[in-house]
Amino acid sequence: MRVIAIDGPAGAGKSTIARALAARLGLQYLDTGAMYRGVTFAALRGDVPLDDTEAVADLSRRVMLEVGDTGVFVDGVDATAAIRTAEVTGAVSKVAANSGVRTEMRARQQQWAAERGGGVIEGRDIGSVVFPDAELKLYLTASPRVRAERRVAEAGGDVEEIERAIAARDHYDSTRADSPLTEAAGSTLVDTTGLSVEEVLQHIVRLLEH
Ligand code: DC
Q1: Is any ligand 1 atom within 6 A of the Cβ of residue 147?
Q2: Which residue has its alpha carbon closest to ligand 1 atom 2?
Q3: CATH number for the segment(s) 2-205
Q4: Residue-range domain boundaries for the chain
């Protein structure tokens, strides 16, 4: 099984790089953040209180999630755009801190990779917890301002406000008890500030050759 794990904070360029790297290596790509967003969408839609950890964990075990090139489907409903709304983005850290949800998502991610002989998988705990034996573990980061600017370029908004929101989410994701965002042992730090997508890709391809 060939797994490339890409972790890092919001806006570091993980999705862009992971998708391009997967295409270059002939592997499939999995956005695990979209899975946590999908569970959050399902909980909000079903009026499941996010503070009810058992009910949310239960929901995560029942929900049908399809995360792929054609979009994100939650129980058959196209949620590709809905999982990126401010409502879901504001609530997802709470769902991602739920241990029952994490246990279920990890099992699904491991099954996804096993069925495909691996893949390029991005998230927060991929190299540290889900695939500690990945062939290559990358920790992508960039300055907070650049990360906010990338998000604004994608989805609009005010840079300072987005920078504050990203900082708050990173803090929450990095300080939760269960598999917090952290640089995994054996991971390579790649600071994408000031680098083009192609420069980052070339750097990663060189790392794979060693
Ligand atoms: O990458 P993203 O912004 O779509 O991630 C959404 C949220 O899910 C984010 O708050 C961190 C969390 N997440 C996580 O805890 N573990 C992962 N493997 C992926 C995402």
Answers
A1: no
A2: 33
A3: 3.40.50.300
A4: 2-205
Quick check: CB of 15 below 6 Å from ligand 1? Answer: no
Q: Is 124 in the pocket of ligand 1 (CB under 6 A)?
A: yes
> pTM above 0.90?
yes
CA of 116 from ligand 1 middle (Å) equals 22
Output the pLDDT for position 151. 87
User: Could you tell me the end-to-end alpha-carbon distance of the chain, in angstroms, rounded to an integer?
Assistant: 18
Residues 19-40: tens digit of each pLDDT: 999 999 999 999 999 999 999 9
26 CA → ligand 1 middle, Å: 24
